[in-house]
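Subject: Predicted fold for carbonic anhydrase, 271 residues

User T.R. writes:
Posting the sequence so we have a shared reference for the thread.
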Amino acid sequence: MGKLAIQLLFLITFFLVLVSRITSQEVEDEAEFNYDPNGEKGPANWGRIHPEWGACSNGSMQSPIDLLSERVDVVSHLGRLSRSYNPANATLMNRGHDMMLKWEGAAGSIEINGTEYLLKQCHWHSPSEHTINGKRLALEAHMVHESLDGRVAVVGIMYMIGRPDSFLSSLRKQLQSVAGTYERDTVAGVVDPRNIKIGSRKYYRYIGSLTIPPCTENVLWTIVRKVRTATREQVRMLRVAVHDESDTNARPIQPINSRTVKLFRPEDKDD
Ligand SMILES: *[C@@H]1O[C@H](CO)[C@@H](O)[C@H](O)[C@H]1NC(C)=O
Ligand SMILES: *[C@@H]1O[C@H](CO)[C@@H](O)[C@H](O)[C@H]1NC(C)=O
Ligand SMILES: *[C@@H]1O[C@H](CO)[C@@H](O)[C@H](O)[C@H]1NC(C)=O
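User M.O. replies:
I've generated the structure tokens; pasting them so everyone works from the same file.
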């Protein structure tokens, strides 16, 4: 009898711990902003949620934008995107509104016009945030870099549904564990950013902003021209991990205003 009571007590405690974990997770995940087009915390209202988020409403160089081919200046002088990455330890995090792979160690950098930008993290939006001639693609990866003096450069890579993306395949276990167990973070081990394939030397370049609050401006954007592929399952896995009700985490297209978009195309024809 005493043994049964202890077992019962153990079971009850177990369930209480489980319930409290789930509950606290939900509270933690109650995002300060979301993607509900009609919601109080939706993109149209981001700029009113906090004074520091004002640029989301009143900025003049916001992201994402539509990359309309007629509007793009084709140039050959921007130079190849110079990436020098290396493997480093990383953590996969569920930020509630997206999944983020954050490198703890030095994962290398890119160099743009003489400035070095260190790779900090990579996260995903689905469908894509930038559009090409008005069309959204299935997925967009953002590799976020920061210079020593705090300037931000993001490299965007777009995906349509097709063959599996090998980098996402390599993260499958970690993505599943974050999605399924209410764990916010999971150690991803050593992740080599060189495995995030670009596969093209052509890219779009423009000046924009962060696509989530605080929507900070003067972000140097590089969007790889080549559209890569990922499976429906891979896109779904990135979305399932996100605990909010909207089935998107793509910010609406922002006005381009007086900005120009350049398309870098190397002069030689081997691309
Ligand atoms: C934009 O919003 C910020 C923060 O609320 C404010 O400080 C700034 O004055 C606003 N700018 C314009 C042009 O309204
Ligand atoms: C990653 O972390 C482990 C454990 O802390 C450490 O032994 C290893 O050297 C790290 N690897 C790299 C590439 O930083
Ligand atoms: C590159 O940097 C130089 C000097 O800092 C600047 O004058 C030039 O406009 C920059 N070029 C581009 C394409 O940003």
